Amino acid sequence: MTSQIKRGVSLYSYQNETFQGKMTLEDAVRTSAELGACGIEIIGEQTFWGWPEVGVAQADIDHWHALMAKYGTTPVSHDFMLDYKRYKGREMPFGEQVASVKKDVDFGAALGMKYIRALVSIAPEVLVAAAPYAEEKGIKILIEVHAPLHFDHPWIIRHAEAFEKSGSDALGFLPDMGMFLFGFPPVWKEKFMRIGVPANIADYIVKAYEDRVLSEYVILNVRDMGGVGPAIAMAETLRHNAAFEPKRMLDYMPRIHNVHGKFYEMTEDYIEPSIPYDEIVRVLQQGGYQGYICSEYEGNRWIEDAQEPDSVEQVRRQQVMLAKLLGETEVPSLKTPVAA
Amino acid sequence: MMDNKMICPELFENVIEDGRATGFVFLGRLPYYRGLGLSMIEDLAVTVDGEAMPREAIRFTVRDKTYTLDEMETVYDNRWNFGEKARITVLKDGGLAAGPHAIDFAVRMRVSYLPFVPTTKGSRELQMAA
Fold first, then answer.
1. Per-residue pLDDT tens for A73-93?
2. By CA distance, what is B42's nearest residue in A?
3. Which residues in A155-263 belong to E strands, given as ranges?
4. Domains and their CATH numbers in chain A
5. Whether this model's pTM surpasses 0.80
6. Domain with B26 in it
7. Which residues in chain B are closer than 8 Å to A18, comparing Cβ atoms?
8. Best residue in A20, A45, A194 to probe B by mutation, most B CBs within 10 Å?
9. ipTM of this complex > 0.85?
């Protein structure tokens, strides 16, 4: 049976290529569409130069809609940033933060999005204050639950309580699957070894992660093993990452409307070695999720010192995996190669 | 992130005014997956062959608008966009001699959601034409 869950891509995934001008917006949309990943998520200010301080020309917004029509894709989410540290030495005042979110609501609506993504550090009061405006515009504001935070963290619980109290259904969650980091990513280990972590220490950290040892003990043990600099940095990744359980999403399903399919590496045989997508899909289906899982490739920064990332191939592999897990019979494939 | 893509190879030349070299210029990109408003660029640091250039000597230019680093701190209506090549000018009497130069380019940025203020540094050898 085919799942109600839909496949999409966050264009964040192609950042290595778009940053260097090796892929255009059209290349990114077409590539995603060919893979059957027809939901498109963007970071507004990555995709549209000028947003938010300078603004975006109507011609650029028209071009976006023309691409969506040409490739049969659906706008899913505009991920906004809200730079509340814009002013040196003082935080942006509350009212200005709310006004800024409303501006992103407008931009999301102009792009035909259903959702806008709020970063997890934004205060719940700001989102609650912007919610009535979002409702008017037909937009939901989703806070991204991202490691090191997770669904049992008091900060997220505070958000959940504020959302319930507001009574607004324009507020919700966008979980990032990186919080379910079951294994230490091989690309992380390899990067740390390239910058000088001895093999015995790297092996120990990976094993300690598998054994779910508390990060502070691992850091102390690495010090005792003679670890310095990069070895401590590798151990400290355990402070910010953990194998939280996908089933923790179940309590929040009515407010989960989009999912970041974070991945660090897809192997040739279509496996993400560190994130349990089979369990994730099972939980989302159990919870009746009907939204998108948007690919979010973040391995680029872990390998770019050693090789040129191939973001398109990585996204293709994840989409093949997702299609299989979702019970699709057709294997996603690319028809138009992107010039490397 | 993107530290090896910060310094672009396609422009490296002396700035000539009234027949005299008054400095040099190269193209730099923000090492980040998005752009940033200029007020959040806390510092740009340039080192040439191991010699640190003074902060006051640096000029930042995007889309024909030029700023000192102190000016940038209160610029709220302009951005360094994602992947955008900014002209990084360093005022240095006499410019640089022809030949290879080791350039370090570091960006310190104030990122709202991060619990620290990151500095990212890129290094590249560039050839000054004779």
1. 999 999 999 999 999 999 999
2. A88
3. 171-175, 258-263
4. 6-179+243-325 (3.20.20.150), 186-237 (no CATH)
5. yes
6. 3-125
7. 82-83
8. A45
9. yes
